[in-house]
Amino acid sequence: MGSVLDMARGRPAKKSPEASVAAERATPLWVLVLATATSAVLLWFGTGLNPISGLTWLAPLPLFAVAARASSWAAACAAALAWSAGELNMWTYFRDDLQMPAGVVVAFLAFQATMFAGTIVLFRALMRRRRVVLSVLAAPAAWAAGEYFMSLVSPGGAFPGLAYTQADTLPVIQLASATGVWGVSFVLMATPAALAVLCVPTVARAAWPKVVALVAVLSAVTLGYGFWHLHTIESAPSVTIALLDVRQSEDSLPLRSPEGRTVLDTYLEQLPALASSGATIAVLPEKVFKVTSTDIVDLGDRLTVAAAVNRTTIVIGLTFEDDTGVHNVAMAYTANGAVRYDKQHLVPGWEDDFTPGNELVSLPDTQIGLAICKDMDYPALARRYAGQGVSVLLVPALDVDRDGWLHSRSAMVRGVETAVPIARSAGRGRLTASDANGRVLADIRTTAGTTATTVTLPAGPSTTLYVRLGDWFAWLCSVLTALALVMLYQRPRLGAASRPDRSHRHR
Fold first, then answer.
1. Residues 78 and 123 placed together within one structural domain of the fold
2. Are 43 and 87 in contact (CB under 8 A)?
3. Cα Rg, the chain, nearest whole Å
4. Which residues, at least 6 apart from 419, have a Cβ–Cβ distance to it below 8 Å?
5. Partner of 240 for a Cys bridge, out of 9, 100, 278, 288, CB 3.0 to 4.6 A?
6. Is residue 507 part of a domain?
């Protein structure tokens, strides 16, 4: 009614916030194309198997910066195209190394691209409604919530996620001990969103002070907490662990084959030297041998004797076939016998015929737990171990050489979430160990022949906010996203809230 009266009196009608923004010059096509290409390049190098961590922070920035002046379809298509192009850096890994069907890979990348497009479009919509501060919070919240729910349904669990790109940036990754990886992903999206607001003065100049304050708070919380947490883990008794790999021609060698016997002899020959360096535990890779019920008895006899002679617990991964099926197991042999852990999270395609386990297992009379490779892609399993007071996790693993960094770091991040040191021995990958804060204490690529190292880990147990409260931050992000969507469909209030922003007009 007010607009009609204004027109009758010869005055221009008042514009809604949306109309005010829409009236501004739209983003030229060439700018949108440039932003898409720049984000794609930054995503290519800032994510993947060997990411450059600093580029991850910048990758979404160009699209956030142009989103407010683009149409919703243009912003969505640009974001989806940038993500799809950038994440093609994982195509050959998924297809050639993991041998995933092309349709599955396309569906996975398309889902992530849709998540990214939704994040950008939500940011755009809130900016056009001049809910600037909310846009800086809700868009990264939508991304973090999307990552969380994807981890619940994806056969890959929480792998891969944006947070792992920061695994070696210790002050940042400490946030995972409070929020899980979802908090790190939130900050990785919130930072470029906030910077983008400062790049759009005609849309959001009035909100600059609030956005600057928000950036200051996020930075202070993330880095302040990070540096503080790096010094909060109490010193504890240590355990010396040997990590050992003998390169073999194929996974799961038949124990009774000539190469199988040679590999076993080589492992046993290495134990005295490792024991003399102080190692009380030796961790070998996943699926070293393929064994039957008869084989595992013979193997157990030899390893039990070796454990007694060297006073060393020997942990080895095996493919074990018996009357109940095929199992991916980690056997831990001591002078007094053995314990068995069955892998709980199996690799789709590769281990479809295997039977998963469901129990947590620790070495006898210790708080040292066992897990296998892909188990460490699932935060819940490590959190269950931490809830039982486990002080160290031993992880036989098997990589494909070039994914050694990413897969070892995802395991280390589980250690940060739970304050549990991780010792991981990966065939065709890396021998790695990290303390409860994710500090890398050992990181050696496995090569032809024998690769070994000895590392002393400070044992726990300790605990974290994430262990106690679980995925609280992911649910908080879900609620914030839902509230933002509700607010988008609310009519703007009459009066001050509906006045056009004149801060950019010439006097």
1. yes
2. yes
3. 27
4. 177, 233, 386, 436, 437, 460, 461, 462, 463, 464, 467
5. 278
6. no
Check whether residue 246 and residue 159 sit in a common domain.
no
pLDDT of residue 71: 93
Other CB atoms within 10 Å distance of the CB of residue 367 = 16
DSSP result, 393-459:
EEEEEE--STTHHHHHHHHHHHHHHHT--EEEEEETSEEEEE-TT--EEEEEE--SSEEEEEEEEE-
Q: Cis peptide before 140, with omega less than 30 degrees from 0?
A: no
Number of neighbours of residue 247 by Cβ within 10 angstroms: 15
Instruction: Flag whether pLDDT at 10 surpasses 50.
Output: no
- Contact (CB, 8 A) for 436 and 420: yes
Q: State which residues form the domain around 28.
A: 17-231+470-490
The 10s digit of each residue's pLDDT in 185-234 is 999 999 999 999 988 765 557 778 888 899 899 999 999 999 999 988 66
- The answer on 179 and 82 residing in a single domain is yes
In a domain? residue 505: no
Q: Count CB atoms within 10 A of the CB of residue 2.
A: 10
Question: Which helix (H) or strand (E) element contains residue 51?
Answer: none
Distance CA 333, CA 315 (A): 6
Cis? peptide before 237, omega within 30° of 0: no
- What residues pair up with 451 in beta bridges, in sequence order? 245
Per-residue pLDDT at 417: 97
223 plus 74 within the same structural domain: yes
Q: What angle do CA 105, 108, 109 make, to 5 degrees?
A: 85
Q: Is residue 500 assigned to a domain?
A: no
Give the chain's mean pLDDT: 90
Measured distance CA(76)–CA(122) in Å, rounded: 10
Residue position matching structure tokens 């009266």: 5
**Is residue 496 situated within a structural domain?**
no
Strand duo 337-342 + 238-246: pairing: unpaired
Tell me the C-alpha to C-alpha distance, in Å, between residue 56 and each of 61, 112, 113, 164, 190. Answer: 10, 15, 16, 10, 12
CA–CA distance, 387 with 395 (Å, rounded to integer): 18
Q: Nearest 5 degrees, angle CA 453-CA 457-CA 459?
A: 150
Nearest to 483 by CA among 135, 79, 190: 135
Cβ–Cβ under 8 Å, residues 356 and 325 = no
- 217 and 110 assigned to the same domain: yes
Are 427 and 186 within 8 A, CB to CB?
no
CATH at 316: 3.60.110.10
Instruction: For residue 507, name the pLDDT band (cuts at 50, 70, 90).
Output: very low
Is residue 416 a contact partner of residue 437, using CB atoms and an 8 Å limit? Answer: yes
Q: Which pLDDT value is given to residue 491? A: 58
